[in-house]
Write a structure and sequence with these properties.
Immunoglobulin-like; three-stranded antiparallel beta sheet
Length: 137
């Protein structure tokens, strides 16, 4: 989004000061040119539709004895996601960080048998896509 008074313009990319996409809501942006005292303002709304991910899956599931990796994929592959793995108690077991390219791997080296939840969240989306993964090794 760009605002200005004709002699100058300012651009806004929809992210906050930490680089995170703003959540749904109504906002006001104000910009002032340096030293000239010229100001411009605009009101805007952000409405990110839920379900930015069309599909997500993990395999093998359940991960059988001898498995060392679980592959996680999502579509569309061009969508960047934040990935986390939680145990059944809701405790964060592993933060996969920012994932790109539509596919990632979870190394099972330190993972105990049990049920886990893989959370894939598109920046700006309120809710993640959850995948249930069982380890039976």
């Amino acid at each position: 989004m760009q605002i200005g008074d004709g002699a100058w313009a300012a651009a806004f990319d929809g992210k906050d000061g930490q680089g995170n996409y703003l959540p749904n809501g109504s906002y006001r942006i104000e910009a002032e040119s340096g030293g000239q005292g010229q100001k411009a303002a605009a009101n805007f709304s952000i409405l990110r539709l839920g379900g930015s991910l069309v599909s997500a899956m993990a395999w093998p599931n359940p991960a059988p004895k001898g498995s060392t990796l679980v592959t996680i994929s999502w579509a569309p592959a061009a969508v960047e996601v934040q990935g986390q793995i939680y145990n059944q108690a809701g405790e964060l077991m592993l933060d996969l960080g920012t994932l790109r390219g539509g596919v990632a791997s979870w190394n099972l080296k330190n993972a105990a048998d049990g049920v886990y939840f893989v959370a894939l969240r598109v920046p700006g989306d309120r809710r993640p896509r959850l995948l249930k993964v069982a380890l039976a090794r």
